[in-house]
Design a protein that fits this description.
It comes from Ostreococcus lucimarinus (strain CCE9901). It holds the Pfam family FIST_C. This is FIST C-domain domain-containing protein. Helices cover about 20% and strands about 40% of the residues. The chain has a 6-stranded mixed β-sheet. It has 2 domains: about 200 residues, no CATH class; about 90 residues. By secondary structure, the chain is an alpha+beta fold. Strand 9 and strand 10 form a beta hairpin.
Length: about 325
């Protein structure tokens, strides 16, 4: 967490096949030559009931196309699940026999397993949900047809005193929804009242809500999320699948956030092997069936389970 190190996770998953790729731009790259999978095979797997495609993806901090790459992955494989994150500046990534410093790398696992994802947020929503009515690049210019910055200041003034001193982030959601939100740091305020946020594709019509980084709220929220992880890990019992351990987990957590989530997971879900890494930003879907996003100040958890065999009557 605080010194140089290597994150290494190993797993045995019978009945699965794997593929890897390296991306240097937003377009989907070729899959490695030695793989038994192709993009067509992976797309068909996502359509087949009983098969899952899980993607573990990492990107370096300077790779600007990670959001577009995740969108393209989801379009190519709509039912796939991507987990991972953005590594700190100067970190190394490994792909097959190569050391990678730039771009993104990914491992795709295809087979008869189940993958549940859970996200523990570090920021609490506050104030009203507003509509993004005017944006340019990564600048929020108008909310509910009013200049963004004065409206956000007004929202902050109405908060309880114990919330006004907390760091503020902007949560962006999908049009027509009331969350969950992808939170972004506010970088600057323009002369016209616009608010620039950290890299995020803004779409007019999307919903926006202020969030504050509240440590006490985040701890309670994480406890509820880990309870859901415990339920997810127990869905397949040893009586059904034999004596082998049929469940494993991965956690990718913000290195600047709560570093106790992995320990809390181990205490609450004993016996479930846990791998993962501390990262600069995390990658996960905010809801089932959604494309994955680059998240901030979260812990993302994936529960891998051996799929139960259906019994014919």
């Amino acid at each position: 967490m605080t010194e140089s190190g290597v994150a290494l996770t190993a797993a045995a998953m019978p009945g699965t096949t794997t593929a890897t790729f390296r991306a240097t731009k937003s377009a989907l790259p070729a899959i490695d030559d030695g793989s038994a999978c192709s993009w067509v095979d992976l797309a068909k797997s996502c359509e087949n009931e009983g098969e899952t495609v899980g993607v573990t993806v990492f990107a370096d901090a300077s790779f600007e196309h990670v959001g577009e790459l995740l969108t393209r992955l989801h379009v190519a494989m709509p039912n796939s699940v991507a987990l991972g994150g953005v590594v700190d500046e100067g970190s190394l990534m490994f792909l097959n026999d190569d050391v990678v410093r730039r771009g993104a790398v990914a491992l795709l696992i295809r087979g008869e397993f189940e993958l549940d994802t859970h996200v523990a947020h570090g920021a609490r929503p506050v104030g009203p949900v507003m509509s993004l009515t005017h944006a340019h690049d990564n600048a929020v210019l108008e909310l509910d047809d009013s200049p963004a910055h004065p409206l956000l200041l007004e929202t902050l003034e109405q908060l309880p005193e114990n919330s006004k001193s907390l760091p503020v982030m902007l949560g962006l959601g999908v049009s027509g929804s009331k969350g969950p939100f992808v939170c972004r740091d506010i970088l600057s305020v323009g002369e016209t009242g616009g608010v620039e946020v950290a890299s995020m594709a803004l779409q007019e019509g999307d919903v926006v809500q202020l969030h504050v980084r509240d440590g006490n709220w985040a701890k309670e929220h994480a406890n509820r999320v880990i309870e859901k992880c415990a339920d997810s890990a127990k869905k397949v019992s040893s009586e059904e699948l034999g004596s082998e351990n049929s469940t494993g987990a991965m956690i990718f957590a913000c290195g600047n956030g709560n570093r106790m989530h992995a320990s809390n997971f181990r205490e609450r879900v004993p016996g479930t092997p846990l791998g993962g890494a501390f990262l600069r930003s995390e990658i996960a879907p905010l809801a089932k069936g959604r494309a994955s996003n680059v998240l901030s100040h979260t812990s993302t958890i994936g529960i891998y389970r051996k799929r139960k065999k259906s019994v014919s009557m």
